[in-house]
Amino acid sequence: QKEVEQNSGPLSVPEGAIASLNCTYSDRGSQSFFWYRQYSGKSPELIMSIYSNGDKEDGRFTAQLNKASQYVSLLIRDSQPSDSATYLCAVRLSGGSYIPTFGRGTSLIVHP
Amino acid sequence: GAGVSQTPSNKVTEKGKYVELRCDPISGHTALYWYRQSLGQGPEFLIYFQGTGAADDSGLPNDRFFAVRPEGSVSTLKIQRTERGDSAVYLCASSPILAGASGELFFGEGSRLTVL
């Protein structure tokens, strides 16, 4: 079992819809969770971080964390074609030196 | 520069050759990370430096891979006797402190390595 799991997609949503991206992790002791966005041919950039159970909102983005279920998600409201990218979930695992471990990413396509 | 700079942006080499990839982090960032990203996969951790020393090299796949950061700024990833399976984008990232505190890694644009 991989430490951080994501469905590779692609997830296709119409413009204006809510896109829901999901991530599960294996290490129950993990404390910090991150979502990075990666456009094709570009490097990842951080868009959200979350540390406590519940929801965290930033503009059109909401991160949701459920540590009991070892599940973190990212919701994108009013999706735009410019949101089309790969979304990488990263988790600071509790062992070792706390280096962020990435999932394989979910490809999101927002079509007009 | 303002961001993390990586050179070369593209490198094509033949199997068995030696390759060096360079990373110049954001000025003042003490932590530096190397990741490798294959097509359709997420970044895979290779090695992390705090200052000049390699604080965690557990991700290096074998002894053909080595990285240095002699003055605590620029880092070089060195790959000996390259194999076709080494083909990937090598990403360098930096952060002001250990990434764990905020989780934000600032990535460079990567060096795409192709081994023929």
Model description:
The complex is a heterodimer of chains A (112) and B (116). Chain A is an all-beta fold and 112 residues long. Chain A has strands at residues 4-5, 11-14, 19-25, 32-38, 45-50, 54-58, 61-66, 71-76, 85-92, 100-102, 106-111. In chain A, the strands form two sheets. In chain A, strands 2, 4, 5, 9, 10 and 11 form a six-stranded mixed β-sheet that branches. Chain A is globular. Chain B has 116 residues and is mainly β. Chain B has strands at 5-7, 10-13, 19-24, 31-37, 44-50, 53-56, 65-68, 75-79, 88-95, 106-107, 111-115. The radius of gyration of chain B is 13 Å and the shape is globular. At the A-B interface, strand 4, strand 5, strand 9 and strand 10 of A face strand 5 of B.
**Unreliable spans of chain B:** none
> Largest contact between protein chains?
A-B, 25 and 25 residues
Order of helices and strands of chain A: EEEEEEEEEEE
Number of helical runs of chain A?
0
Report the average pLDDT across residues of chain B: 92
Indicate the proportion of strand residues of chain A: over 45%
Mean pLDDT of chain A: 93
Beta-strand percent range of chain B: over 45%
